[in-house]
């Protein structure tokens, strides 16, 4: 390790915002095309590579991670017209492959992105079979940009019927009968909008296969805010079109419904719910012809209501499953039980753990619990479609937990039997661990729950411990197969995941308790988790590492600046760190509802109170920090990590050989999906960095 870091000049850049002097000495690092920024980045590349490649026992960590990721995975089937569609990743594959199972039982490979692009840079983003199961709409993107291109292929022949259609990022597809047309979501032409709004302005369209997409029929979205996201779905009989929408990432939904029996070119969409009502709502019209609505309207933990689609407004809803005080309603599916009538399979999470129950579809009365394999997560809940012959009383469940790679179970409503129908190909690589859920108090006395993973026969405490979390956007961190956690624990460490406020593990109120002016509570919850681990003897500050990505990168960035003495090492991946200027980059403007906006005087004060970049203190002994950024990230700009890295390298009093501050960059990869090989490479660098700092692999 060199005695000093690459030189980064500190400019005298100061802005006065609403009476606050805001210093920004590294603003020049916002522009990657600036020669000075590019040169500094190359020096950081060399520094990080030389340090990371020299870490002891790095290959051992890589081998362990590779084995854990090579378990593969399989998804729950989606049924259309007698065919079932599912993804499966074998042990030697970089990406999941889409398969189709014919009514005869024959399984065929349908779509493999590595055949489309052997470079490994293309990912399968979404896919949707037609109602008859004879056509497939799929979306792919390349280089991590998530700019999905939509294609249509013939399921029987594999022939490409159409594509690519561009500007389909985050688009759902709702097929009409016959497979000739579908509804979907596409951004309008970039020439029609300001340059800084080209990632927005989505619309709902009706498209005929193999026609010019620029001639599509506009269905919805013309007069709504440009940040609106939409999804589309159809009832099983294709009579009812449902459009869901929300402004950006705000948890405020709008819902519209249209009766397609009227055979209008542009169906009249009737508003069911307005985002100004401040609630979420997800609706489905099921085979019985009724509309089922899962909503937080009047119920922060969610309730299930039913209505006639012809009278869809909340005043005409009938509550079937009321809000539960101890769990969060996640979803519900209609399923028929021969001889007994229709049932509802209702999925809740209790403190982030899945629970599944059966209810009478007419009264909502609970008639029994569905036994699940353990403490884990139901990732999908599917049923057979109306065009598929055979028993209709089955539920198809995607399942995972901390030690179980994604697999599939089938549950018979009639017999009450739960059956494992397909497991991941290489599950023998998973080590034995113990998993527990504990409770602790945060700074304001709030009870927070936390998952702890430890070796099944742990050595004497204290142990090197890796604490991670998220705490934002109402995203729940539930038990799921996590190779990096298993690798850490199998090496003798402890891995911890608290259910921080800002997530939705305890419902929408839990989310709101950690957003906007309440954001500091999320960091307090995280610090309290660390103190619990130290006070209970699990670890010490010298053995405690933390990691987080995206909003979780903001979390650990705030943690290391607020309590540098509590943490030994930090991995901060694709983070938000300059909270004064985050809205000016990429998708940042979508997140002001979550964090607040620097344009508002009061909200600027919230942001400045914790913005990690603005709380780096000169002469402070900071922990070892590894920033990870992705140059093709289209959500969080790498400028956050560049500026924070320069600030910490300048300010820290810790010697570089003990607590280095490094910046790890990747190109042609983005915020989300990546190949197995690249996942192994990144996770190896992260774990080796933390293991060296905390002494995990020292003998």
From TrEMBL:
Residues 6-422 form the Peptidase S9A N-terminal domain. The keyword Repressor does not apply. The keyword ATP-binding does not apply. SUPFAM superfamilies: alpha/beta-Hydrolases (SSF53474), Peptidase/esterase 'gauge' domain (SSF50993). Belongs to the peptidase S9A family. Pfam families: Peptidase_S9, Peptidase_S9_N. GO terms for cellular component: cytosol. Its EC number is 3.4.21.26. InterPro entries: AB_hydrolase_fold, Pept_S9_AS, Pept_S9A_N, Peptidase_S9_cat, Peptidase_S9A, Prolyl_oligopep/macrocyclase. Transmembrane segments: none annotated. One of its GO terms (biological process) is proteolysis. It catalyses: Hydrolysis of Pro-|-Xaa >> Ala-|-Xaa in oligopeptides. GO terms for molecular function: oligopeptidase activity; serine-type endopeptidase activity. Residues 486-695 form the Peptidase S9 prolyl oligopeptidase catalytic domain. This is prolyl oligopeptidase. It comes from Actinopolyspora xinjiangensis. Coiled coil: none annotated. Keywords: Hydrolase, Protease, Serine protease.
């Amino acid at each position: 390790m060199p005695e000093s870091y690459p030189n980064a000049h500190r400019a005298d850049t100061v802005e006065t915002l609403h009476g606050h002097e805001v210093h920004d000495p590294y603003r020049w690092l916002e522009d990657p095309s600036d020669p000075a920024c590019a040169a500094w980045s190359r020096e950081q590349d060399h520094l990080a590579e030389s340090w990371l490649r020299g870490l002891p026992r790095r290959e051992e960590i890589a081998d362990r991670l590779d084995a854990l990721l090579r378990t593969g995975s399989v998804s729950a089937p989606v049924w259309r017209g007698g065919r079932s569609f599912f993804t499966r990743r074998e042990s030697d594959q970089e990406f999941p492959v889409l398969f189709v199972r014919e009514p005869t039982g024959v399984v065929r490979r349908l779509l493999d992105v590595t055949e489309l692009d052997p470079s490994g840079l293309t990912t399968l983003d979404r896919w949707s079979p037609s109602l008859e199961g004879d056509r497939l709409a799929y979306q792919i993107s390349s280089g991590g940009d998530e700019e999905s291109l939509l294609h249509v292929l013939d399921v029987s022949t594999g022939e490409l019927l159409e594509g690519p259609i561009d500007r389909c990022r985050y688009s759902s597809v709702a097929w009409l009968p016959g497979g000739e047309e579908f509804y979907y979501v596409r951004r309008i032409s970039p020439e029609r909008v300001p340059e800084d709004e080209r990632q927005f302005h989505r619309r709902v369209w009706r498209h005929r296969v193999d026609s010019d997409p620029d001639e599509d029929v506009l269905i919805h979205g013309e007069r709504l805010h440009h940040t609106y996201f939409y999804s589309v779905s159809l009832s099983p009989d294709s009579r009812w079109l449902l459009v869901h929408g929300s402004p950006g990432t705000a948890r405020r939904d709008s819902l519209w419904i249209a009766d397609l029996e009227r055979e209008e070119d542009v169906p009249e969409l009737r508003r069911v719910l307005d985002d100004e009502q401040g609630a979420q709502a997800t609706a489905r019209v099921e085979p019985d012809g009724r509309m089922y609505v899962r909503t937080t309207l009047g119920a922060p933990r969610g309730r299930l209501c039913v209505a006639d689609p012809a009278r869809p407004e909340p005043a005409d809803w009938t509550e079937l499953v009321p809000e539960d005080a101890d769990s969060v309603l996640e979803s519900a599916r209609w399923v028929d039980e021969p001889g007994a009538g229709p049932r509802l399979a209702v999925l809740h999470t209790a403190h982030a753990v899945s629970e599944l129950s059966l209810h009478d579809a007419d009264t909502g009365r609970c008639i029994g619990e569905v036994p699940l394999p353990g403490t884990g997560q139901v990732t999908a809940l599917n049923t057979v479609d109306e065009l598929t012959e055979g028993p209709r009383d089955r539920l198809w469940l995607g399942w995972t937990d901390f030690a179980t790679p994604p697999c599939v179970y089938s549950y018979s409503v009639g017999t009450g039997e739960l059956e494992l129908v397909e497991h991941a190909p290489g599950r023998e690589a998973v080590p034995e661990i113990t998993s527990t859920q504990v409770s602790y108090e945060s700074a304001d006395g709030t009870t927070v729950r936390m998952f702890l993973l430890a070796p099944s026969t742990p050595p004497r405490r204290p142990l090197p411990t890796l604490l991670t979390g998220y705490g934002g956007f109402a995203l729940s961190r539930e038990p799921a197969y996590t190779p990096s956690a298993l690798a850490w624990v199998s090496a003798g460490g402890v891995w911890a995941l608290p259910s921080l406020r800002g997530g939705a593990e305890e419902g929408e109120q839990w989310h709101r308790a950690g957003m906007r002016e309440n954001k500091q509570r999320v960091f307090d919850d995280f610090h309290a988790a660390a103190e619990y681990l130290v006070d209970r003897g699990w670890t010490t500050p010298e053995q405690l590492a933390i990691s987080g990505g995206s909003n979780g990168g903001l979390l650990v960035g705030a943690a290391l600046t607020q309590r540098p003495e509590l943490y030994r090492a930090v991995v901060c991946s694709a983070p938000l760190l300059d909270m004064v200027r985050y809205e000016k980059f990429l998708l940042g403007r979508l997140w002001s509802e979550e964090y607040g906006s620097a344009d508002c005087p009061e909200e600027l004060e919230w942001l400045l109170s914790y913005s990690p970049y603005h709380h780096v203190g000169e002469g402070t002994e900071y922990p070892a920090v590894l920033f990870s950024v992705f140059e093709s990230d289209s959500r969080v700009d790498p400028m956050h990590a560049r500026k924070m890295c320069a600030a910490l390298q300048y300010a820290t009093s810790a010697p570089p050989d003990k607590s280095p501050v490094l910046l790890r960059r990747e190109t042609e990869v983005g915020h989300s999906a990546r190949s197995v090989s690249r996942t192994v490479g990144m996770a190896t660098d992260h774990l080796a960095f933390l293991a060296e700092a905390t002494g995990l692999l020292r003998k």
